[in-house]
Amino acid sequence: MGESHAVIAPNRIGDFIFKGTIGEGAFSIVKLVVKEQNGQYYACKIIPRAKLEGSIRTRFELEIRINQQMRHPGVVALIDLFKDDFNYYIIMEFCPNGELFEYIVQHGKLSERECKPLFYQLTSTIQFIHNMNVCHRDLKPENILIDRFGRLKISDFGLSRFMGPNCIVSTSCGSPCYASPECISGKPYNAKTSDVWSLGVIFYAMSSGLLPWTKRNQTELYQQISTGDYKIPNHLSPALADLVRKMLTVDLNKRITIAQILDHDFFKDINKQVVYPPLNVPLVSLKKIDQFFERDKEEQYRKDHPDEFSSSTGDNSFRKQLDQLSEKKHYLIKQRNILYAMKGEHQPKVHEVTEADKQNALKEIHEICNKNKTVNTIKVVDTTNSRKPVPKTSLVNRGHGAKQPTPNKVIVKPGISVGSASRL
């Protein structure tokens, strides 16, 4: 494990016992954990406290607060939060079938019968997110996970923002291959409309095994995106080709909306009254989030040190996001502009995570993942009569924001494969 991934981790946190490392990111590692009380498996993102300072910690809080609101079957659920003197521990829903990205790289395109319910599910989830006045801003197959039943779940709200009525943002973000023309323009843009474009690129990739773009140089890639220079694959049906074309329309005034996508002719034969099974997982409360970020202590600190809370202090843009989020509905606390320095609650028994730990746990993790899979196909419950099998996906979920090195496999077809393009 590299220096950036070195972490001091306990053998357990709360009722959760660590089983092994299943993912790594720039600021974190992801471990498989089991809840001692019921034997249920979850994923735990471990973030060293030293990595989260200043505006990065503020973004982290915003991500957690947004994710907590996204209580939907199509979103990876936030289960619990812990901290100690060394790390923050984020317990997430475990998706043993890994990333949609891995699936496309390994197996190429999906048939339209397979794509249709998945497209509808993803669009419905984005509609829910947008209805909560949140824009994801980093939609890509790496941030879409596959649960044990083959359902797609959106994860990683690290770049997401709570939006005002006009949904206008000024910061370019996300992955180049999935970024909209307006996002890479450097000008303010509508984040909801930009999410539609990103979703269109995902639809294209799932149905063709390729990305729409053929340029590998970033300057040329941006030019291709900005002009909408792509070709619709010949094998797509007229309805799907029309849908993708309308999603990947450069003109914002002509680009299809989320509501129009769900009403498109491509979905005319799908059961739109999908009944998802309940989540059946405990979800973290807002009270626990407030305690996690020590808002109760901060309130008293604000009263005792009013001079430290001037408007010129710190990252106002992200604090404004927390302010907007706190005003939303009735259940979020008031904005606090400065995050109080946290004090660890306890010091656990710790050990240095080594490569040997990962190797020793690998076999057990694979067995757990296989045991937790109940289907070998990617599908949405009760949507179509499609029963065409899809090959098994990879065993381990690397998601929940963790980014591992991109797989080296390249799909040898015209254009850019999903595997190669993601490195741009």
Automatic annotation (TrEMBL):
Protein name: CAMK family protein kinase
One Pfam family hit: Pkinase
MF (Gene Ontology): ATP binding; protein serine/threonine kinase activity
UniProt biased composition (Basic and acidic residues): 297-308
KW Cell division (keyword) present: no
Residues that hold ATP according to the record: 45
Residue ranges occupied by any Protein kinase domain in the UniProt entry: 16-267
Similarity comment: family membership: Belongs to the protein kinase superfamily.
Region (Disordered): 297-318, 385-407
SMART domains, alphabetized: S_TKc
Organism annotation: Trichomonas vaginalis (strain ATCC PRA-98 / G3)
The entry's keywords: ATP-binding, Kinase, Nucleotide-binding, Serine/threonine-protein kinase, Transferase
Keyword Transferase carried by entry: yes
